[in-house]
Amino acid sequence: MDRIPILKLGYALLVTIQVDMHDRLALALEEDLTAKIVSAGARGVLIDISGLEIVDSFIGRMLDNIAAVSRMLDADTVVVGMRPAVAITLVELGLSLTGVKTALNVERGMQLIHGRLIGVEADDGDVDD
Amino acid sequence: MNDLSLLTLRTLLDRQEGSILADWLHSLERLESLAGRSGGGGLDGQARRFLASLKRALTTGATDPRGPGFADLRDVLAEISSSQAQQGFSPGETATFVFSVKQPILLGLSAAPDADPGRLADVSWELSQLIDQLGIFTFEVFQKTREDIILRQQREIADLSTPVVKLWDQVLALPLIGTLDSERTQVVMENLLQSIVDEGADIAIIDITGVPTVDTLVAQHLLKTVAAARLMGADCIVSGIRPHIAQTMVHLGVELNVISKASLADAFAVALARTGKVVVAQKAKA
Questions:
Q1: What distance in Å separates residue A85's CA from the closest CA in chain B?
Q2: Which of A89, B97, B139, B267 is the most exposed place for a label (fewest CB within 10 A)?
Q3: Where does residue B257 rank: exposed (0-12), middle (13-18), buried (19+ CB within 10 A)?
Q4: Selected residue of A50, A77, A89, A96 to mutate for chain B interface (largest B Cβ count, 10 A)
Q5: Hey, is the C-beta of A66 within 8 angstroms of any chain B C-beta?
Q6: Which domains does chain B have, with CATH numbers?
Q7: Does residue A98 form part of some domain?
Q8: pLDDT, tens only, B240-268
Q9: What was the ipTM of the complex prediction?
Q10: Below-70 pLDDT ranges, chain B
């Protein structure tokens, strides 16, 4: 079965969705991502959906779920690169993903996660750059 | 319409097309002078074409004015209707143009030597119905032309009234003018989201100074736009809320759970602060 690759970038995980999501793929991603957050000790999750042209309520809820789960595991979820049409669809479906942070592109999303990490690490007295 | 009436009308038109046309033109002239219009205007040409294609339609044996047999006549009527509309005729005058053909035809019918009163009544009733339908058809064409114009203007207004302005790097402004209905919200939303992508904007300021009233529906549309912009990774600030609108919104129990500022200037200041920029006064030169 197809799986969506999860890349580790420092403290963050990067997921780039480039195929049309179907429900089984979404469920697999949720499961893989949860496992990976724990095994990699990730503090942030970036989900790039710039390649996603169609969303339905299931995918919207999956994004919300992933955010809730990763928050529980102390990792921030940032959804980046959403297309205008997708944003409108989600709003019309009544899913405004209030628990999810958003950013325009991967770069800005990385900044967002990094900003949080620097804050956290400064508290620990351990800044790596 | 039964075959007998059809046949009667057809033979009448065949034999007396010329005199019917002359009568009709005569009464049209009278109508024109009543309406205070100058003569000419291509009316006789239009009358001639109308009669000719009415005759053709009857020859095909068609009886339903909305059926395929009358397609040609309907085209002619549509053309007449639009050309008269362009010359400034009212739809009523155009319909009267068609209705006024009844009298000459009826006169022709009753003048026929073998006229049988019972049959004459039948035929004139059928004729009357037919012409009425055709008259109504011109009305519909006129109305449709008008509606097309209105639709086009609506689209133009929608395009005109939703500009997205770039205020600074990563700061966009969306000055809204006029009421927000769901159709316009859709256009506004699409424009804003596309501009956010194009400009890589972080902050969008929605200025509602030009929105006359904010009720629960408008507020809901605003919130939808804000939510969609947030999904794209841009924060929204609502500005330009006038005092009495603020009061109405509170009385209605409408809550905008977004950052709101009284004026666009205040919102812009917030946006600059968020993007890490400051405005400083230039030092006075010595």
A1: 8
A2: B139
A3: exposed
A4: A96
A5: no
A6: 3-157 (1.10.490), 165-274 (3.30.750.24)
A7: yes
A8: 988 888 888 888 887 777 888 889 999 99
A9: 0.76
A10: 1-3, 33-41, 113-115, 161, 284-286
